[in-house]
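Hey, I was hoping to borrow your eyes for a little while. A protein chain has come my way and I'm curious about its shape. Take your time with it, there's no hurry, and the full record follows here:
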Amino acid sequence: MKIKILHVELILVCLFFAGTVCREAFAQGTSDKKSEAGPDVRGQNGKEAKDARLPWEKETGLKQHMMLTRIKGSRKIDIHPVKQAEGITTGLVIAYGHVISPPYKFEYQGKKLFVNGVQVRPSLVLEREPRQLLPLLTRGQAEATFKGTQIQRAAQELYSSGLKTKPLKEVQAEIVALVMKSTDVFLRAEWISDRALNAKEVVSGAVSEMRFSADPPVELTPKESQRREEENARWENEELTSRMRRVLGAGHCWIFLSQGTAGDQGEFGIFGPKVNQIMAELGLTREQRIEKIKAEVGRGRYEFALDVVDNYDPAEWKLKE
C-alpha cells in the first residue's frame, strides 16, 4: 500500500485544527485576543438571546488559556542536565522553566533533540499528557480551517515549482503574497528560514509554522514514509540548533516551553532578576505570580509564566543574575 504525502511539513488539517482551538504559540494568543468583554447577546427589543459562543469564548485570561491548552495539569517536571566539559559557553538555555547551565552540547536520537542530556523536543510534558478530543468548531472556524489547508497546499506547490526557475527570495515573496491574500485566515506571514514560514492565524491568534520542501508531492510506502519523517525531524532539529547557536552566540537566552515551542527570550540579565523578584514577593498566589510574569517578563505569554512558576528553582535562576 502506498501513502500520498504532501511535503509541506506544515500544519495540515489536524495541526491547523489544533491551532484553532487548543494551541497557543509564542506570539500573542487567543487568551489576550479575547480578553475584552464578550459580545452583547441581547436580541431585538433588548430581550436576551441565546449565547452562541463556545465555552472558551465566554472566558478571559488564565481561565480561558487553560481551556485551550493541551496541558491541563501542572507543568512540574524534574530534569537532570549532564554537565559538559566543552561546548557552547555563551548565552543561556531554559527548558520547562529550568535554567540549564553552559557549556551546551546538542544531540539527536531519532526525532528527539537533547540539550546536555535533557530531552527538549518533543516536549516531555506534552508526551505525558493524555490525548484529548478537540472541541467542535463553529462554522466560521471550520471554514477558516479548510481554507487554511488549501492555502498551505497551494503555497507548497508554488514553492516546489517556483524554485525550478526563480531565485529563493522571489519565491518566498510570492508565497507571502499568496498567504496574505486571505486576510480572514492569516494576519501576517514571516519567513524564519529558507524553508520555514511563521503565519499568525486570525481565528486562534496562534502562530503556525509552515515548513516547505523543494520536492513535489510523491507516493511513499509506509516504510519510506517513516524514513522520510525521521529525515525531516532531523532536518528540523538541525535547523533549530543552527538558530540556537546564533542566539546563544549573541549572549541571549533560548527557551523551550512545555507546550512545544521554542525561541529567543532576549538577555537573561534583563528578565532574570525580574523573575526572581516576582517569585520572592510575599503574599502572592500562584495565579497572581503567573499573571505578573506573563505581563512583565513573558511578553504576554501564559506558557512561559506557567513553566517558570511550576518549576522555579532559585538556585538555578540566581546563578546567572
The chain has eleven helices and twelve strands. The radius of gyration is 21 Å.
